[in-house]
Every structure is written in C-alpha cells, then in structure tokens.
Amino acid sequence: MGPRPRTDTKRAGRIRKAGSDYLAYRLIDAIVDHYFVVLEKIGDEIESLTEEVSEEPSRATLRRIHDLKGEMIFLRKLIWPTREVAGTLERAESGLIKKPTVVYLRDVYDHTVQLIEAMESYRDLVSGMHDLYLSTVSNRLNAVMRSSPCSRRSSPRSLFSRGYTG
User: In Å, what is the CA distance from 72 to each residue of 84, 143, 161?
Assistant: First the structure.
C-alpha cells in the first residue's frame, strides 16, 4: 500500500469536532464554490462570443450561443435547489443544526443569491448577444441585396417616365 495523501489535519479535526452539521455545511459550500468557477468560465465564453458576434458571426457562433443558453439553464436548475437547501437548513428550528453553523449556512445562502443574480445578468447578455447576431446577419444580408443586380431593377415610376419621354 502506497503512502497516504497528506491531509490538513487541522481542518479535518475541526470538521470532526464541529459535527455532522458543519460537515454538511462544508459539502454545500464546496459545491457552491465550484459553481463560481463554472460561472467564471461561462463569463469568459460570453466575452469570447461577444467579440465573435461583433466581428464575424457564423452559424457556429449561433450554435455556441444556443449551447451557452442551454448550459446556463442547466446551471440555474442546479443553483436554485442548492439555494433552497441552504435556506432551509439556515432556518431549521431542529436541534440538528447548531447555532455556529447557522452563520456559515447564511453565508452559503448569500453566495447562492449572488450566483443567481450573476446568472440572470449573464442570461440578459446572452439574449442581447443573440439579438446582436440576428441584427448583424440581417445587415449583412441587406448589404448583399443592395449590391445584387436584382435590386437594380427599374421601379415602375422610372419605367413610366422613360416610356413617356420616349
């Protein structure tokens, strides 16, 4: 059997001393902290997509926008229940959650609220990005139509004036 990985004995001792309620808090807090990492990656993706949409949008860009929307919906479905769990444990009147742990759970609850607010703002950004994509593609199509020979047809008014004057 190989060497055992070194653990932080001070932290492990605190979890053992504090009890199962503190362990539950630490697990929920670890999950919430990971959501911040995921949200940061989504923010980076939004920044990258914003540049791509404004410079040279393509069908692949639209697919990435839709994929990003799906990821955000999935993440939102994960964050809301976590918020509810933290809120329920914080307000629990049972003897299972000790008073010192309630303070920590309140902090986790506040973090989930921050995550939800960030998700809402990212959702607005992605919706705006989708609108910007559609506008850019429409403008490009209009430019192509203006330069195409079909758009240079004579209008009925010009035909009338040509026919009248000979």
Answer: 18, 34, 59
The contacts of residue 86 (CB under 8 Å, 6+ apart) are: 28, 32, 105, 108, 109, 112
pLDDT tens digits for 26-74?
999 999 999 999 999 999 999 999 888 888 888 898 899 999 999 999 9
Q: Which residues are CB-contacts of 64 (< 8 A; sequence separation ≥ 6)? A: 45, 49, 52
Per-residue model confidence as pLDDT tens digits over 129-146: 888 888 887 777 777 777
Please indicate, yes or no, whether the overall pTM of this predicted structure exceeds 0.85. Answer: no
Report how far Cα 11 is from the mean position of its chain's Cα atoms. Answer: 33
| Residues 36/116, Cβ–Cβ less than 8 Å | no
Tokens of 161: 């004036």
The structural domains of the chain, ordered by start, are 17-135 (1.20.58.340)
